[in-house]
Amino acid sequence: MNTETTAAPVAKRVPAERTHHGDTVIDEYAWLAAKDDPETIAYLNAENAFTEQSTARLGTLRETLFNETKGRTKETDLSVPTRKNGYWYYTRTVEGEQYGIYCRRAAQDGETDPPMPEDGTPISGEQILLDGNALAEGHDFFALGTFDISPDGRWLAYSTDFDGDERFTLRVKDLSTDEVLGDEVPDTFYGSAWSADGSTLFYLTVDESWRPYRVWRHAVGTSAEADEIVYQEDDERFWVGVELTRSEKFIVIEAHSKVTSEVRVIPAANPTGAPAVIAARRQGVEYSIEHHGHRFLVLHNDGAEDFALAYTSADAPGDWVPMIEHTPGTRLEAVDAFANHIVVSLRTAGLTGIRVLPDGSTEAYDIDFPEPLYSVGLDSNPEYQTNTIRLHYASLITPDSIFDYDLVTRQMVLRKRKPVLGDFDPAGYEQHRDWALADDGTRVPISLVCRAGTPRDGSAPCVLYGYGSYEASMDPWFSIPRLSLLDRGVVFAVAHIRGGGELGRRWYETGKMLSKKNTFTDFVAAARHVVKAGWTAPDRLVARGGSAGGLLMGAVANLAPDAFAGIVAQVPFVDPLNSILDPSLPLTVTEWEEWGNPLADPEVYAYMKSYSPYENVASVDYPAILAVTSLNDTRVLYHEPAKWIARLRATAPQGSYLLKTEMGAGHGGPSGRYDSWKEEAFVAAWILDRFGIAA
């Protein structure tokens, strides 16, 4: 096991008082929120140095794990080309390069199948649209926010972030000349939409709390100073998004909070027109639209907890005419319209699925898939006039696969399965669905994967992963780095706890607000179950989660420290009460419909305080804890895990706590693929060290 050889950093204590609803709290580590204070940076650097020293002897194992991932990955490769308006669009990666290269090639006469060189080398006649490696040169971090090609194929709108703070600079490139225009807009958000003729670009900006709230109209070839605000959302609970429908007939502006939405449209052929509301917002009613011929398809939850599908006139939106009635337990998640078909993405019994309505009729059918555990969804499908859809499919043992599905013949063609180099054989692994019993009698699904023949006598080490917030579902996914754990005898399990969306909207509702503790007790029940079922033992079990899943990690550390040998908390939301009490922080007001408003409601305040990891650190024997964060994270601020680790050390000094801060990255961690592999190798080595596995 890992042994620290020098004393851990000790954060100074500077009492800061917080009083709400008659409750006064002293926070000795609030000073760490001062990002520009040299003492803060010095402390984070000291923690990084301590973490590096404490894990230095794992350097060989980290290098081995990194090389295993690298050796299993086809480094020079390309995505399956997607056809759009006479071009095949795709992304290439090149061995030794961190980022993707975005390309296209004109479709040849009679060409129906995507061109795909088996060696992953450039397709003959390709045009490079953007080279991420060239853009990233000279920067430690690089991310694209928008990559949007105009309907006529001439213009490319793209935006870049070089700090990880998700503030993007928007630019326009003329693909007919490869010239980047002088159009430059700083501080934009994800998402954009083109007018039908490509003359006008719509984009988003954020307010001081990092909330996208304005839609702007920009005429190509003009200065950003002349741009006009098309729509502004003043209700701080709502985010705004913008997109062009697949039919290329409408610009869609969607405003949505956690529980309410409102949609406006502008004819794409009249980009200077005023946005028209489809249906006025009503508290608690969520809906989205998709254009389909003479109508808008409306996916909604009005009297339909798991959502229903309806339509309304595209010329004069009004009443919603039912198409798919609400079925409790079958959660309709998205609708995609094509010229002659409607495709609905759904989930039932904890699994994703695809439903097809041929020719817009109500005679729907579901597409069958072979494995008992899997994840399926629509991939890139930009063409409206098509009878073929592209699907993405994966499982815990099946690598990411791209299929083309013929909506007329109902035939499916595998276009590509992500290569896994070396001796990988799916038959050498097993995947299982198990169920834990929560304290209130609720059955909680668990997905597991391991090497074939792994013993069920409690001797195997296990990683239990969880998230459980925002109705986000942790559907089965394939991971090349995970193979390094499985091949060393580790069982990987996912607890599908309440707060997620795996079992429908009710599963989410019973894991949020004043029912949030169900998320944590479900995870503990899953931990107890995998031990009882013989998958592992408490001293062989490591929990892992990130972001809101990091809140889960901190909560279960307090709730059941005896259940785990180690906990990995990545960009963890471990100081939720202090953050949600401060409406000036990014995202706070929009989060009140997820967690409750502790500023206004003393019951919410008391409830959040009772589970907040930072508020409830105690003098107990905690499992070893590794917290990983990023200085420029705008979603979960770096100081939350920094404060948490400082308080853990001061309150329970007998424990082993490490904090690793990426000093030049954001919420997603390092941006380059090789850097992200190294980060994963660092975490995996720490996990294996908990299990006493050193090679």
TrEMBL record:
Keywords carried by this UniProt record: Hydrolase, Protease, Serine protease
Domain of life: Bacteria
Segments forming domain Peptidase S9A N-terminal: 9-415
Organism: Plantactinospora solaniradicis
Record-linked InterPro entries: AB_hydrolase_fold, Pept_S9_AS, Pept_S9A_N, Peptidase_S9_cat, Peptidase_S9A, Serine_Peptidase_S9A
PANTHER family: PROLYL ENDOPEPTIDASE-LIKE, PROTEASE FAMILY S9A OLIGOPEPTIDASE
Name this protein carries in UniProt: S9 family peptidase
Domain Peptidase S9 prolyl oligopeptidase catalytic: start-end pairs: 477-692
